[in-house]
Specification:
Layout: H1 3-15, H2 19-36, H3 40-64, H4 79-99, H5 101-110, H6 114-120, H7 126-136, H8 141-149, H9 152-160, H10 166-186
Amino acid sequence: MNENLMIMRRAKQQLANKWINVAIGTLIYLALLSLSSYTYLIGMIIYGPLTFGYYLYLACNIDTGVNNLNLLFKGFERFAETLVAGLLYFLAVSIGCALLIVPGIIAACGLSMTFFIMVDDPNISGMDALQKSWNMMRGQKWNFFCLNLRFIGWILLSTLTCGIGYIFLTPYMVAAAQNFYRKLRYGTY
């Protein structure tokens, strides 16, 4: 069976009986990101801390079953590191997309493990996490891109629901990406 399909099935299993909790956390995360995007500068500043907090929240929910919404804001306790990681990620992907779409996709895939690495290692800097992600994804970018392509139908369906579907799709996609990361880092998810 295709590894990406197994990763997605595992993500569904991990989220079973937790959909309402993670949907509430996701709603808060997406609402804060949406509100902050009205001011471009504020959006760029809080992207890293919020994304770190969201990844931490989902990892805790999946691994322990504990639904601690306070974890959504833990990125602000590591503000400098998460800010640097978020800004540099955003900058690299934006420059890549400005050059052509393909370099932006390569940058996004190469740096996609940054916040998972930061969740795993509370002492790593944002720069080091970006570098570690890039190294970890060497030879894996295509596989990760293909994993994300499997969500195209769900993305279209979520868009047709005026975005409401993203409350459930986002945790599914992040859980699958987390499983991809854990498979690379630990050999299992």
